[in-house]
Amino acid sequence: MGTPRETREEQAETVIDRLEEAYPDSTISLRYSNRLELLIAVILSAQCTDERVNKETEHLFEKYDGAEDYANAPQEELAEDLSSITYYNSKAEYIRTSCELILEEHDGEVPDTMDELTELSGVGRKTANVVLQHGHDVVEGIVVDTHVQRLSRRLGLTEEQYPEQIEQDLMTIVPEGYWQQFTHLCIDHGRATCSAQNPDCSDCVLADICPSEKGDSEIDLASGDAW
């Protein structure tokens, strides 16, 4: 197994430094042109790849223009437009209901606070953080998706299991100026090297500081299971 830095703060700093060098152009991969499109894309991305979402929204954003179009769309029609997306029926309902509330409570504009965003259907803290960061330039937390969750546990940055608790741990050890970028770096590394089922530890820039490294470690700290 790799040998982590003495403190979690030092471990986080080293992780960021190395991943920044490995992925210098790391950024959000969802495509959108305004805050509502961003919100919809993030809702659709739950348990679905960004690549699939981008392919679906390419035509979706041409057909629907603004919250009123989505709010007034028949459920069956909107669901059909999302049919290649996982849980498309539920997500169609989330989008319709969220847009209704945006029209009724926010004059058709995507709200800019955590509390208001998480009142929308299908919007939890992770989704709200993405919209705040990339739609409103407000960074008040760390987006914890499946990649961040997996890497943070494997690298010994947290022992928590659930996203909100992991976020709280990370916010104490990741410098605030990196709260947004930390997520993108983890996503890129998770896709390229540190996959869920078969991470490529032999070609990992973090292997020597990773307590889950397969060369010696018997346990995947992300799952708690044996390799």
From TrEMBL:
A Pfam family matched in the record: HHH
Keywords: 4Fe-4S, DNA damage, DNA repair, DNA-binding, Endonuclease, Glycosidase, Hydrolase, Iron, Iron-sulfur, Lyase, Metal-binding, Nuclease
Cofactor(s) needed: [4Fe-4S] cluster
Signal peptide: none
Domain HhH-GPD: 44-192
CDD domains the UniProt entry points to: ENDO3c (cd00056)
Annotated catalysed reactions: 2'-deoxyribonucleotide-(2'-deoxyribose 5'-phosphate)-2'-deoxyribonucleotide-DNA = a 3'-end 2'-deoxyribonucleotide-(2,3-dehydro-2,3-deoxyribose 5'-phosphate)-DNA + a 5'-end 5'-phospho-2'-deoxyribonucleoside-DNA + H(+); Hydrolyzes mismatched double-stranded DNA and polynucleotides, releasing free thymine
A GO MF label: class I DNA-(apurinic or apyrimidinic site) endonuclease activity
This enzyme's EC code(s): 4.2.99.18
One GO-annotated biological process of the protein: base-excision repair, AP site formation
Binding residues for [4Fe-4S] cluster: 194, 201, 204, 210
InterPro entries: DNA_glycosylase (IPR011257), Endonuclease3_FeS-loop_motif (IPR003651), HhH-GPD_domain (IPR003265), HhH_base_excis_C (IPR023170), HhH_motif (IPR000445), Nth (IPR005759)
Organism superkingdom: Archaea
Enzyme class of the recorded protein, top EC level: lyase
Keyword 4Fe-4S: yes
Cofactor binding note: Binds 1 [4Fe-4S] cluster.
Function: DNA repair enzyme that has both DNA N-glycosylase activity and AP-lyase activity. The DNA N-glycosylase activity releases various damaged pyrimidines from DNA by cleaving the N-glycosidic bond, leaving an AP (apurinic/apyrimidinic) site. The AP-lyase activity cleaves the phosphodiester bond 3' to the AP site by a beta-elimination, leaving a 3'-terminal unsaturated sugar and a product with a terminal 5'-phosphate.
Membership in a protein family: Belongs to the Nth/MutY family.
PANTHER family: A/G-SPECIFIC ADENINE GLYCOSYLASE/ENDONUCLEASE III (PTHR10359), ENDONUCLEASE III (PTHR10359:SF18)
Protein name from the UniProt record: Endonuclease III
Organismal lineage: Archaea, Methanobacteriati, Methanobacteriota, Stenosarchaea group, Halobacteria
